[in-house]
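Reviewers of the previous submission asked for a worked example of the structure-prediction workflow described in the proposal, so we include one complete record here. The input consisted solely of the amino acid sequence. No template or homolog information was supplied to the procedure at any stage.
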Amino acid sequence: MKRLWLLFAQTCTVLLAGYFVVATLKPQWLGRTPSVAGAISLIEAPALPIGEVPAGSLRGAAQKASAAVVSITTSKAAGKNPHAGDPWFKFFYGDQGNEPQGGMGSGVIVSSSGYILTNNHVVEGADDIEVFLNDNRSTRAKVIGTDPDTDLAIVKIDLDRLPVIVLGNSDSLQVGDQVLAIGNPFGVGQTVTSGIVSALGRNQLGINTFENFIQTDAAINPGNSGGALVDTQGNLLGINTAIYSRSGGSMGIGFAIPVSTAKQVLESIVKDGQVTRGWIGVEPNDLSAELAETFEVKTKEGVIITGVLQNGPAAQAGIRPGDVIVAIGGKPVTSVTQLLATVSALQPGTATAFALQRKNKAVTVDVTPGRRPKPKAN
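From that input alone, the workflow returned the following structure tokens.
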């Protein structure tokens, strides 16, 4: 019995020693990968088959939309100081250089004819505009028309085989929907960021005359202006235009002009070379308890008129300070933003019924809108 036990122990010892030698010198014989002393064992996920998209990836939307998003650089000749030739001016201030000023932004190709949507502030006052496509082509562009009231502009390039973005439906957006922002932030090259719709209908920000912004937390930075805000299918929902920031960079509050507004501006500029809006010449305010008491108004809904331009369309129709506009063309009006949008959509020269509340009396007048004056340049 002792001999059997001794034989068993010796056999195990020899087998273990042999295993140790093979594992050290020839680990591949055991189907193991050699390891370096002190190395960390890593567990790698199995590779996905080529062409398969990971679950939850927005790759498809990014690839679909990115091809139609362009980078825009502009240059503007420096203004010459009228005193530049004065010796005393040169003595105190030195030679004032006449180097051109440069700018950058983004744009979205919306037509195979070469029309590009961007922001007015990207191309405003530019003497030279150059567009860089995502396929490494570049070309000069010309301004077709601008609309400072919405901060939109249309430029055109002459190239063939242009990628065109698909226009989505911004009216169907809901808070919480996923979106992507695509542009050229800080001039580093095309960049895609993701986020959600944080709010809708943002206004009274003092950015544009007509404000109905989509708010998003997708990172938008300087250089993204004029770029695309798209849905998870890669369809255009808005034109990125502004951010709220204390540092100059993204703080998670960005604003985009809805594609519904951009489409109207695009069609008007391409067709007529400009955007024509209705105008009645009033100073509107949201109806508050204080204003209602001041003008002895009993209604709680509508937009109160605190000023009327002399000889303007509203004055000629009989609208007075203190009147409350409650409906235009049968459509209720509840805010200044809604009033501006409704009036701007009216056809100049065509009379429209305005329902008013004048103190305790309901009044209806026909107003013939004029053409909205162009905003004064800043």
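The first strand starts at residue 69 and ends at 76. We consider this example representative of the routine output the project will generate in years two and three.
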